[in-house]
Amino acid sequence: MSIHESNGSPQSLKNASKIKFEERRESLTFLGLSLPAILAILIVVFLPIIWLSSLSFYNAAGELSMENYARIYESALYRRTFVVTFQISIAVTLICVLLGYPLCYWLTKLPDRTASILMIFVLVPFWTSILVRTYAWLVLLQRNGIINSSLMSLGIIDEPLQLAHNLTGSIIGMVHVMLPFLVLPLYATMRSIDTDLVRAAVGLGSSPREAFWRVFFPMSRPGLFAGIVLVFILSLGFYVTPALMGGGRVQMLAQRIESTITIYSNWGAASALGVVLLLLALVMIWLMHRVFGLDKLFMR
């Protein structure tokens, strides 16, 4: 019997059908086990988004209209809110990079035990209420706070600096909250880098600085880019810290949504702002995916 005839025998066809049946049954079983989680995601995540989107098309009189989106486009106040939101988010992300990268690099040079102990201090913000941390910064940064009092007693300044209830205070408070979101993925990536590669580059004639930029830094970029994405996207929708540290002078999108509901009771306008914020976040994620390749970053 030829090979072709053997492969096409009834027994071979029966085995192939049995394998396909087992694969199909396994897929159905997996789908059945996943169904409760899928339904929970649909109810908890997608239904509120659909409800929010539907509300955005109703004006204050309860009529179907594009008035809410037209107001966002035409209003200088709303445009200013978007500009401030992106300014703060970009500033917070840049400062977190400038603080977090040297910190992670220094931690990788320490013994594992020492680095683990020091990482506890990075994780402390996760164990403390964000409200408590924000009020602590208000105590430190206010005109009669510890920082201004210390600077004045040392003769560095003659009058208190305006560090709270403004843009500066909002950025300082948000950096404190967001820094761990950059440090954790970056530190995990740096710890996985083989330092022998840097030593080999130095041994082959590169200077330590050149070895860092041509060997170590490119290998740390996945963690750095992952941290940048997390910090920036989370900063876009931040509410508590800028609301308290800004003292009402700094209005981000989340605060504008809250005031639109509590002061004006305009759920349609607030929903439109929420939809626009969601779309902006999705667009930023897509752009970062095109630049950084997020699918490759989070699969490492």
CATH topology (level 3) name of the largest domain: MetI-like fold
CATH architecture of the largest domain: Orthogonal Bundle
Fraction of residues in helix: over 70%
Q: What is the total tally of β strands?
A: 0
Strand percentage: under 5%
| Rg | 27 Å
User: What is the ordering of alpha helices and beta strands?
Assistant: HHHHHHHHHHHHHH
Number of domain modules = 2
Please work out how many helical segments DSSP would assign.
Answer: 14
Biggest beta sheet attributes: none
Secondary-structure content class: mainly alpha
Shape: flat
Q: What would you give as the CATH superfamily of the largest domain?
A: MetI-like
CATH class of the largest domain: Mainly Alpha
Please mark out the parts with pLDDT under 50 across 5 or more consecutive residues, or reply none.
1-6
Average pLDDT over all residues: 85
Termini gap: 50 Å
Describe this entry's structure for a reader.
By secondary structure, this protein is an all-alpha fold. The protein folds into two domains: 3-55; 75-297, MetI-like fold (Orthogonal Bundle). 78% of the residues lie in helices and 0% in strands. The protein contains 14 helices and no strands. The protein has helices at 3-7, 10-55, 67-74, 76-108, 112-123, 130-141, 146-153, 167-191, 195-203, 208-236, 240-245, 253-262, 267-292, 294-297. The longest helix has 46 residues, at 10-55.
Please outline the helices and strands.
Layout: H1 3-7, H2 10-55, H3 67-74, H4 76-108, H5 112-123, H6 130-141, H7 146-153, H8 167-191, H9 195-203, H10 208-236, H11 240-245, H12 253-262, H13 267-292, H14 294-297
